[in-house]
């Protein structure tokens, strides 16, 4: 039987050639992992909207562009970090260009104490055995076809470790730059491995940006492990180029008493999906997944999260707020699963969307699956417009309509931004929101003129 | 010239006539009270003056300094010197009181050709205005009206008025839901703005507020029209006899 896929995709093409030149091509466990990836992808194809997890995100545009893996020249072309990455002063910057580590652009000489960073490719070349068992295979059923494709073309990314007990004050800032190539649509498949050791405290900030115009595809997988009592903040800015495709999966494992504080702001890209699978395997742990999304034009922005409560007495909190203008489409899928043994789970999820135009759309799908009997779980979802009463009140005090709208939009998204517990990050991400709001304001004035 | 002159004002809401030929003139320096039974059209008048959507003026004019304001946006009216203290002040989650008021004041100052106040200058200015109203920094920082009690919301309206210094203030039942102490605080705030260049229209059900804000003129609004006008003694008479006489007149 031939499974119906979303058109004929060329995304898996070139695997056989690529597999021979990828780092560690002679390492059996690694080639096995890649082969399993391509086989799963070839069998399933790109997900269609008949696949439940992809019901609201149509990948036809991705299939049509005929992406091929970015070669080394494409990543070498960049000579400076784009200015629209987060301006996180004092952070230790690690730069990936089209999925490849660029040591020369990174602060490799000032890695903070208690932190080790290396490139995945260089490690696979030098000491592949050190990563055996650490590069987790991808399961098509659980992680999806695009994660399988990431496994097939697995090449580079970062290996980041926070040592046991390390209290790392300096944030690690991972800057992923997509560089479109002339005349071709290029794809990158970065795999990042992050381990926060027992009792460590650390912050990982990610900026996903573009250098230059044109289509490109970033299909990354990040595996994050929080060992017992670790506390990791992971804050991500998705500000890809206007023709960029961004599909990201983060698989997060949270141990006893550990706190994962996740945040994502999505505002760039033609089509994006930020997917997080958090597995709470320890008790007394906390999983915070918060986010914001800002869409305009014909952008499609998907946030999909799964929180698996597998151990008793843990807590999860989720607040996602978005603003969609023009013909933008948003998707929020939030699933919380409380397994039978996860008694005394406390989970709360909230998704709110503000639609600024009649043509904007949001599909929001909260799901609670509860198999334990002593839990406290709730969720809520709302979709609305700006309030006329609030607008009139502000205008009656002399604030012009455009400014009043801007203030209300920023305030709306602010609730999600403020879930970040770090004042610097609140300010930086807040600036991105104001920047977006002001840009919308200007484009409205122009189109109105 | 009257500061506010309303001529033959007819207003419908959802096709239903509410104001039916209302006439009113307020001179600079005056305080007028507008009283009347529920459903007479008092709040409709206040919203029409402030420029809220959903009120269709089918006939008549509202002149402020001789200029018809009915075609003006709400913010243009505010910048011209109009202010409405809302009967039900609106909560604005996520916008702090200081940000809100600073933005409003600077919008007005810009129109008046005055330099905008920076954050420090504004804070100093607003604290001065807030203190007599019993509004502290904590309340200023909170989101506008969010989680405020009824009395706090009304005091916050008076604070906005004190900061924006309008030439014509319309107070829509600012006394409702206030205890006697809060009433005095609010009235003091209003009286502070009394001067020969400003005017106030106080909309109220009760005589109580008028003990503190003594009006020059009192009008009775019933069934969409001013049916009686007089001096401050009219309010006392209404307190005694109620509005039944006017409802009766309209039924006849």
Secondary structure elements and their pairing?
The complex is a heterodimer of chains A (449) and B (252).
Chain A (H helix, E strand, L loop, with lengths): L14 H7 L6 H17 L15 H5 L3 E2 L2 H5 L15 E6 L2 E2 L13 E5 H7 L13 H4 L1 H8 L5 E5 L9 E7 L7 E3 L2 E6 L4 E10 L5 E11 L4 E8 L5 E11 L4 E8 L4 E10 L5 E10 L4 E10 L5 E10 L4 E10 L7 E10 L5 E10 L5 E9 L3 H8 L5 H17 L5 H26 L1
Helix pairs in contact in A: 2-7, 8-9, 9-10
Chain B lengths: L3 E10 L2 E11 L4 E5 L6 H9 L5 E9 L2 E2 L5 H7 L1 E4 L6 E5 H16 L6 H12 L6 H5 L1 E2 L5 H15 L3 E5 L7 H13 L6 E5 L4 H5 L4 E6 L2 E6 L2 H9 L2 H8 L1
Parallel strand pairs in B: 3-10, 3-11, 6-9, 9-10
Antiparallel strand pairs in B: 1-2, 1-4, 4-5, 7-8, 11-12
Helix pairs in contact in B: 6-7
Q: What can you tell me about this protein's structure?
A:
The complex is a heterodimer of chains A (449) and B (252). With 449 residues, chain A is an alpha/beta fold. In chain A, 23% of the residues lie in helices and 36% in strands. Chain A has ten helices and 21 strands. In chain A, strands 1, 4, 5, 7, 8, 10, 12, 14, 16, 18 and 20 form an eleven-stranded mixed sheet that branches. A ten-stranded mixed sheet of chain A has the order 3-2-6-9-11-13-15-17-19-21. In chain A, helix 9 runs antiparallel to helix 10. The longest helix of chain A has 26 residues, at 423-448. Chain A is globular, with a radius of gyration of 21 Å. Chain B has 252 residues and is of the alpha/beta class. Helix content of chain B is 39%, strand content 28%. Chain B contains ten helices and twelve strands. In chain B, the strands form three sheets. Chain B has a six-stranded mixed sheet with strand order 6-9-10-3-11-12, with helices on both faces. In chain B, strands 2-1-4-5 form a four-stranded antiparallel sheet, covered by helices on one side. Classes of the chains: A alpha/beta (449), B alpha/beta (252). The interface between A and B is medium-sized, with 21 and 32 residues.
């Amino acid at each position: 039987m031939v499974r119906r896929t979303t058109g004929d995709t060329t995304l898996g093409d070139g695997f056989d050639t690529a597999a021979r030149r990828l780092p560690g091509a002679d390492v059996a466990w690694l080639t096995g992992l890649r082969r399993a990836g391509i086989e799963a992808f070839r069998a399933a194809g790109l997900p269609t909207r008949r696949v439940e997890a992809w019901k609201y995100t149509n990948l036809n545009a991705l299939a049509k562009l005929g992406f091929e893996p970015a070669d080394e020249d494409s990543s070498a072309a960049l000579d400076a970090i784009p200015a629209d990455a987060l301006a996180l002063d004092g952070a230790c910057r690690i730069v990936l260009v089209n999925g490849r580590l660029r040591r020369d652009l990174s602060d490799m000489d000032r890695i903070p104490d208690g932190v080790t960073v290396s490139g995945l490719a260089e490690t696979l070349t030098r000491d592949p055995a050190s990563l055996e068992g650490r590069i987790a295979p991808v399961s098509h059923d659980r992680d999806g076809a695009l994660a399988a494709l990431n496994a097939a073309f697995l090449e580079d990314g970062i290996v980041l470790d926070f040592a046991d007990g390390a209290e790392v004050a300096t944030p690690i800032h991972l800057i992923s730059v997509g560089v479109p190539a002339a005349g071709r649509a290029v794809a990158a498949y970065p795999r990042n491995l992050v381990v926060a050791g027992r009792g460590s405290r650390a912050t990982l900030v990610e900026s996903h940006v573009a250098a230059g115009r044109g289509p490109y595809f970033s299909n990354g997988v990040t595996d994050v492990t929080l060992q017992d009592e670790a506390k990791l903040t992971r804050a991500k800015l998705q500000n890809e180029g206007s023709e960029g495709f961004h599909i990201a999966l983060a698989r997060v494992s949270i141990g006893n008493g550990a706190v994962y504080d996740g945040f994502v702001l999505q505002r760039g890209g033609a089509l994006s999906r930020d997917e997080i699978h958090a597995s709470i395997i320890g008790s007394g742990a906390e999983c915070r997944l918060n986010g914001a999304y800002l869409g305009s034009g014909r952008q499609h922005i998907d946030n999909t999260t799964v929180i698996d409560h597998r151990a008793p007495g843990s807590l999860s909190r989720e607040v996602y707020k978005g603003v969609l203008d023009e013909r933008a489409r948003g998707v929020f899928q939030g699933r919380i699963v409380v397994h039978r043994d996860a008694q005394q789970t406390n989970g709360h999820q909230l998704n709110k969307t503000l639609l600024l135009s009649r043509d904007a759309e949001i599909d929001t799908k909260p799901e609670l699956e509860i198999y334990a009997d002593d839990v406290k779980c709730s969720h809520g979802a709302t979709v609305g417009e700006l309030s006329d009463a609030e607008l009139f009140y502000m205008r009656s005090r002399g604030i012009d309509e455009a400014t009043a709208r801007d203030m209300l939009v920023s305030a709306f998204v602010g609730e999600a931004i403020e879930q970040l517990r770090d004042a610097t990050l609140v300010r930086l991400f807040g600036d991105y929101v104001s920047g977006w709001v002001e840009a919308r304001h200007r484009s409205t004035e122009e189109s109105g003129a | 010239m009257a500061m506010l002159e309303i001529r033959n004002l007819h207003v419908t809401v959802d096709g239903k006539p509410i104001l039916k030929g209302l006439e009113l003139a307020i001179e600079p320096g005056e305080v007028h009270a507008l009283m009347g039974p529920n459903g007479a059209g008092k709040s409709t008048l206040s919203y029409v003056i402030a420029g809220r959507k959903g009120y269709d003026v089918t006939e008549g004019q509202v002149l402020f300094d001789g200029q018809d304001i009915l075609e003006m946006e709400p913010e243009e009216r505010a910048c011209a010197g109009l202010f409405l203290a809302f009967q039900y002040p609106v909560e604005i989650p996520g916008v702090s009181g200081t940000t809100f008021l600073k933005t409003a004041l600077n919008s007005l100052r810009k129109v008046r050709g005055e330099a905008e106040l920076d954050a420090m200058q504004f804070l100093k200015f607003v604290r001065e205005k807030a203190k007599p109203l019993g509004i502290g920094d904590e309340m200023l920082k909170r989101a506008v009206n969010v989680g405020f009690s009824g009395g706090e919301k009304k005091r916050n309206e008076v604070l906005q008025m004190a900061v924006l210094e309008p030439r014509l203030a319309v107070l829509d039942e600012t006394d409702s839901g206030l205890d006697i102490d809060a009433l005095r605080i609010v009235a003091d705030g209003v009286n502070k703005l009394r001067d020969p260049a400003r005017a106030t229209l106080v909309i109220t059900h009760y005589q109580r507020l008028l003990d503190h804000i003594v009006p020059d003129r009192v009008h009775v609004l019933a069934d969409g029209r001013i049916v009686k006008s007089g001096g401050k003694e009219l309010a006392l008479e209404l307190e005694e006899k109620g509005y039944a006489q006017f409802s009766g007149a309209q039924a006849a």
